[in-house]
Amino acid sequence: MNRSDVLIIGAGPTGLVLALWLSRQGVKVRILDQTAGPGTTSRALAVQARTLELYRQLDLTQAILDQGHRVPAANLWVKGEQAAHLPLSSIGADLTPYPFLEIYPQDQHEQLLIERLERFGVTVERQTELLSFTDHGHLVSAQLRGADGQEETCQAFYLAGCDGARSTVRKTLGIDFPGGTYQQVFYVADVDAQGPALNGELHADLDEADFLAVFPLAGEGRARLIGTVRDERAEHAETLKFEDVSRRAMDSLKVQVDRVNWFSTYRVHHRVAERFFSGRAFLLGDAAHVHSPAGGQGMNTGIGDAINLAWKLAAVLSGKAEEHLLATYEFERIEFARRLVATTDRVFSFITADGPIANLLRTRLAPLLIPKVTAVEAAREFLFRTVSQITLNYRDMPLSCGSAGHVHGGDRLPWAHGAVIDNFASLDYLGWQVHVYGVTSDALRAWCAERQLPLTVFDWETAHQAAGLARNGFYLLRPDTYVALAEKSADPKVMERYFEERKIAL
């Protein structure tokens, strides 16, 4: 009988990242997908700054930067005129090494992940379907049907449902997926085009016309158009062609399309599963949450799910943590998913709502308010932090403890850099580690050395103070680089107590 540590259902970015992170930690995985091959077209484009930071752990970041397209700014248009310009590169320059939006289409993204996964001897089993599974308490047995139509039973200690919005895993578990479906129909078109909106930046139209966003792709004049169809044509979305789409928004953005490379339509849902796990089965990505594409958050959130769960599964499977650690996956990810769906729902409703009041807000009020709001540095920074996901934190949750400076347990470690210092340099390490800014005690050094816990001591710099870090305390970082424990003292007993209380071994 085929047996693995973790059986992963679904080989989109979420499933592939989970398989890659687990394989890197020595976990035996099996990953399968119903499709005959990876996608050749894609809707997901945006790779946010936080994802790029996390990808450093598996040396993925530079490959994406080399192959993708950096978007340095975003623009909002109203009635054919540019109403606001957001220079992402200057807003986020002191917040992250990646102060931009990286455009890297999902089909390319998946291919990169597949190639990296194959280095660990793991290949995606294509045209393989999960028929059913049973959780026996100590392991999971699953019934599969392969490409040749033959059925087999396999076993795994854990099952990961990365199988999309129609998840077989979620349905088998009987977990509700409350929410709804927007009435608007979306279209996606990969085009070669001309015009001022084809300058390598992101452009979005806020108008009485159908919503339209222009995402630049690598290569001159290449772009992805994402828009809505809101009139009677939406009733026949499955038969729509690009020629049927209204040109009002394109004319407003002065987009002249020369060639359409591919085109598709789809409806958008906003739903969050009531649970993210049951027994030994987990839900990740679109199987757990779906929402509007506002802000380019979907794929990044699924990747965040995978990285959060991967280190916890590895710890439990290696005997370094007890199974209750896995429950923190739901604690940490479900609240973020709920907030994200609520936020993107409000944004999406604003930009797509019909009626005279909605049109008045978009075309009269928004052009007046948006430039004023975005002129305020704090507002620009808040917007960048939110969209880039660097503001995501796990404060006040079971694995988060303490505070030092402006940093709390559960926070993303702030980036502090200078001419010769960069406190993110050690974050390519996949495991627990400790940061100290200033000086520390011999006792802390000895405690870390005895347990082979990497300790990095940075000479105190003004950049550390500017980032909100505390002098001479310490920060215990989880394997996913979030702060587990922030402590003002240099007493190793505080760290020892942290691990003992959570029954985690190094």
Structural write-up:
The protein is α+β, with helices and mostly antiparallel strands. It folds into 3 domains: 2-67 and 104-177 and 273-341, FAD/NAD(P)-binding domain, CATH 3.50.50; 69-102 and 180-270 and 353-391, D-Amino Acid Oxidase, Chain A, domain 2 (2-Layer Sandwich), CATH 3.30.9.10; 401-502, Glutaredoxin (3-Layer(aba) Sandwich), CATH 3.40.30. Helices cover 31% and strands 27% of the residues. It is built from 14 helices and 24 strands. The protein has helices at residues 13-24, 49-55, 61-67, 88-91, 106-118, 168-173, 248-252, 298-317, 327-352, 356-374, 377-388, 442-450, 462-466, 492-502, and strands at residues 2-9, 29-32, 46-47, 69-71, 73-78, 81-87, 101-103, 129-135, 140-145, 151-161, 179-194, 202-205, 212-216, 222-229, 256-272, 277-278, 281-283, 289-290, 401-404, 407-408, 433-437, 455-458, 474-477, 483-487. The strands form 4 sheets. It has an 8-stranded mixed beta sheet. Strands 1, 2, 8, 9, 10, 16 and 17 form a 7-stranded mixed beta sheet that branches. It has a 6-stranded mixed beta sheet with strand order 20-19-24-23-21-22, with helices on one face. The chain is globular. The two termini are 33 Å apart. The model has no long low-confidence stretch (mean pLDDT 91). This is Pentachlorophenol 4-monooxygenase PcpB. Its EC number is 1.14.13.50. Its cofactor is FAD.
